[in-house]
């Protein structure tokens, strides 16, 4: 590798590790504060959120140090710690923790969000809509089997199925996310807006991310990046 490319690669790796170290430190501070401020009513919810959040951040830090590529069996360091199969195994915990964080947050919002303001457009989510976080988690749980098998076999269609399940997962919660956003923003008086400030931030962030991910998955990630290559591999076989 030319010196310029070698230097760029290590700069990229250093920046990646630095970002994740900062995330780890922030996670530590938030973890400590959430324990100190925990009340009995939300004790179990906060304990679960802390545990899943810490798991996700720790695995992200590990994977930023030991970068790997499952399909092409590429590793940043020549060590067992950089094994694709090992990293795929610990990624299961990170991805399920990520899914659990979103599922629990959406379910908790269903409980805590006040009813829409009188005359506002925000609707209370129905029974089926409230169950979509479980569908979301189930899709990502099932995706782990395809991802792990694909890492071992290098069959690209299995990776494509995994990514399709991720797309379905976010599509399943999109209606609920938008309904929750509408419920929060239906309160217009200053007192309600102040009380719901954190809810407004979270629901807006979730809406932007979910809409963005669904669009990315449907119009680029799956039809351009994954399925054409997967189908081409099958045709070659």
How would the blueprint of this fold be written?
Layout: H1 3-36, H2 43-65, E1 68-69, E2 74-75, H3 84-112, H4 127-130, H5 132-153, H6 156-185, H7 190-195, H8 197-236
Antiparallel strand pairs: 1-2
Helix pairs in contact: 1-2, 2-3, 3-5, 5-6, 6-8
Key words describing this protein structure:
mainly alpha, two-stranded antiparallel sheet
Structure description:
This protein has 237 residues and is mostly helical. The protein is built from 8 helices and 2 strands; from the N terminus they run ααββαααααα. It has a two-stranded antiparallel sheet. Helix 5 packs antiparallel against helix 6 and helix 6 runs antiparallel to helix 8. The chain starts with a helix and ends with a helix. The mean pLDDT is 88.
Average pLDDT works out at 88
**What profile does the largest beta sheet have?**
2 strands, antiparallel
**DSSP strand (E) fraction?**
under 5%
Strand order of the largest sheet: 1-2
Structural class label: mainly alpha
Order of helices and strands: HHEEHHHHHH
Summarize the structure.
With 237 residues, the protein is mainly alpha-helical. Helices cover 79% and strands 2% of the residues.
